[in-house]
Write a structure and sequence with these properties.
- This protein is of the alpha+beta class and 434 residues long.
- The protein folds into two domains: 300 residues, Zn peptidases (Aminopeptidase, 3-Layer(aba) Sandwich), CATH 3.40.630; 118 residues, Alpha-Beta Plaits.
- The strands form three sheets. Strands 1, 2, 3, 4, 5, 6, 15, 16 and 17 form a nine-stranded mixed β-sheet that branches. Strands 7, 9, 10, 12, 13 and 14 form a six-stranded antiparallel β-sheet that branches. Strands 8-11 form a two-stranded antiparallel sheet.
- Strand 1 and strand 2 form a beta hairpin.
- The longest helix is centred in the middle third of the chain and has 22 residues.
- The radius of gyration is 23 Å and the shape is elongated.
- It binds zinc ion (ZN).
- Zinc ion binds next to loops.
- The site of zinc ion has 5 residues, from loops.
Length: 434
C-alpha cells in the first residue's frame, strides 16, 4: 500500500468485507440462475453454462471498473492495476465451471471472493502497489473432458500435448472446437502460448468450499490449506477375459467381473494399510461395470470396464502407489487368467502449499478473530498448476455442509465472508510490494 496509508485494523477489514455481503449474495444468486439445471447447476465447460457464468462475472467486474482480459483458452482476468509496475502480481480466483447438476459454490466462491476482496480494499481507501488479478478459470472439472486443470494449465502454457483433441463426453466434440466456440484460439493454446510468466507472479491464492466435512466436524468456518494431492488416473480401463457358459467350472473360467472385484478389494486393502500407517491417500473406482452389449444372466463376463483415480500428497507416495497398482494388476491377471488393458494414463503433480503463505493466512485469521484448522485438500484444484511451476500458492477452505459435486452443497454467506476476510487481509499486507 502507499506509505501514507495507515494499515487498517482487523475490525476495519472485517467491516469492509461485510459491507459486500449483498453484492456477494446477489452475484451467487445470479450465478445460480445462470446455471440452473435441476437439481443443481450445470456450468458445462466451454459450453452455454460456463459462458453465462463468465458473462455474469465480467459484468460485475466491469461495473467495478476492473480491467477485463481473456487469453487463448478464454480464461477471464479481472484486474486492479497496481501502483508499481515492477512489483510482481498477485493472482486469486478459481474455476467457473461445475460438474453436471453440481452445487453453486464449488469454484464460483473463489471468483466472488476475489471481487469482494478488491471492493474491501477500495472501501478501506487503499491503493495496492502490486497488481491484483481475479481469475475466472475455465474447465477445471475433469468429468467433462477427462483432463485435469485445462484452463489454468493453458494460462501457464503447460497444457499437455494431445489435450486439445480429447472429446467432451456428452457432446463428442473436441476441446479445440469447444475453445474456439467460446472465443478462444486453440492453435495458440497448442503452441504453448501463455498468459502468465510464472516468474512474474508473487503468489496464487485460491478460496474454495471444502469438499469433505472436516470443518463442519471441527465447528470452524475457515480452513487453511496444507496441500493439494497429485494423482494418476486410468479414465477408461478394461479387463479382457472370456465369455463362457454359466455352467463352466471355476477352474476353466476367465471371469473379467471377478477379476474386477479382486482388483477393487486389493486396492481397498492397500488403502486401509496406508490409513493405518497414517499416510493420506485415496483411490476411487468411479466406473465399474460389465459390458452391457454382452452381459447377461447366464454368461460368464468376458469384459469388464472401470476407471481409476489414485491420489496422494507426496510424489514419492504416489510413485510407490503406482508400483503397487502394477503389482496388483499382475497378480489378478495371473490368478484369473485375464488381461488388463489400462488405456490412457494421466497424471497431475502434487500441489504443495507455500509454508510462508500458510503461516501468514493463519496469523491473519487469528488477528481477525477467526479460528481456523489446517486442512489437506481432498480434491484437486487449479492452484496446483501454479504451484507446479514454482508460484507460491495458498489455499483457504470454507465450511460446506453436504459435500460437493452435488446439488446440496451448502455454504453460508457468513462463512464465506470469514474466509474472504482472511484473503483480504493477506492481499492488504502482500500488495504493499515492499
Ligand atoms: Zn472446484
Amino acid at each position: 500500500m502507499d506509505h501514507d496509508n495507515t494499515a487498517p485494523s482487523p475490525v476495519q477489514i472485517r467491516a469492509a468485507v461485510m459491507a459486500s455481503r449483498d453484492f456477494a449474495a446477489t452475484l451467487f444468486d445470479q450465478l445460480r440462475r445462470d446455471g440452473l439445471d435441476e437439481p443443481g447447476v450445470s456450468r458445462d465447460p466451454y459450453g452455454p453454462g460456463e459462458q453465462r457464468a463468465h458473462a455474469t462475472c465480467t459484468a460485475a467486474a466491469e461495473a467495478m471498473g476492473l480491467t477485463i482480459e481473456g487469453d487463448a483458452a478464454a480464461n477471464l482476468y479481472m484486474t486492479l492495476p497496481g501502483g508499481d509496475p515492477a512489483a510482481k502480481r498477485i493472482v486469486t480466483g478459481s474455476h467457473l465451471d461445475s460438474v453436471p447438476h453440481g452445487g453453486n459454490f464449488d469454484g464460483a466462491a473463489g471468483v466472488v471472493a476475489g471481487l469482494v476482496a478488491i471492493q474491501a480494499l477500495r472501501r478501506l481507501g487503499l491503493t495496492p502497489k502490486r497488481t491484483i488479478t481475479v481469475m475466472g478459470i475455465r474447465a477445471e472439472e475433469s468429468i467433462w473432458f477427462q483432463v485435469s486443470y485445462i484452463g489454468s494449465r493453458a494460462a501457464l502454457g503447460i497444457l499437455p500435448e494431445g489435450s486439445l483433441d480429447v472429446l467432451r463426453i456428452d457432446t463428442g466434440r473436441t476441446l479445440a472446437e469447444h475453445i474456439a466456440d467460446c472465443g478462444g484460439d486453440p492453435d495458440r493454446v497448442r503452441s504453448g502460448s501463455r498468459h502468465f510468466d510464472p516468474a512474474s507472479l508473487h503468489a496464487f491464492l485460491e478460496l474454495h468450499i471444502e469438499q469433505a466435512p472436516a470443518l463442519v466436524e471441527a465447528g470452524r468456518s475457515t480452513g487453511i490449506g496444507t496441500g493439494i494431492p497429485g494423482n494418476f488416473r486410468y479414465p477408461d480401463a478394461r479387463i479382457e477375459g472370456c465369455n463362457d457358459h454359466v455352467g463352466l467350472p471355476r477352474r476353466f473360467r476367465r471371469d473379467a467381473a471377478m477379476a474386477g472385484a479382486d482388483f477393487a478389494m486389493a486396492l481397498d486393502q492397500m488403502w486401509a494399510e496406508y490409513d493405518q500407517r497414517g499416510i493420506p491417500m485415496a483411490c476411487t473406482i468411479g466406473r465399474f461395470h460389465t459390458d452391457s452389449k454382452q452381459h447377461g444372466l447366464t454368461i460368464v463376463p468376458g469384459a469388464f470396464h472401470f476407471s481409476l483415480d489414485v491420489r496422494a500428497y507426496d510424489e514419492s507416495v504416489l510413485a510407490e502407489l503406482d508400483q503397487r497398482v502394477d503389482a496388483i494388476v499382475a497378480d489378478v491377471e495371473q490368478r484369473r487368467g485375464v488381461t488388463f488393458h489400462r488405456g490412457t494414463k494421466t497424471r497431475a503433480a502434487v500441489g504443495p502449499v507455500d509454508l510462508l503463505i500458510k503461516s501468514k493466512l493463519a496469523r491473519d485469521a487469528a488477528a481477525l478473530g477467526i479460528e481456523t484448522i489446517e486442512l489437506g485438500s481432498p480434491a484437486s484444484h487449479d492452484a496446483a498448476a501454479f504451484a507446479a511451476l514454482g508460484v507460491p500458492m495458498g489455499l483457504i477452505f470454507i465450511r460446506n455442509e453436504n459435500g460437493s459435486h452435488n446439488a446440496n452443497e451448502a455454504m453460508t454467506i457468513e462463512d464465506f465472508l470469514d474466509g474472504t476476510a482472511v484473503l483480504t487481509s493477506y492481499l492488504i499486507e502482500e500488495s504493499r510490494g515492499d
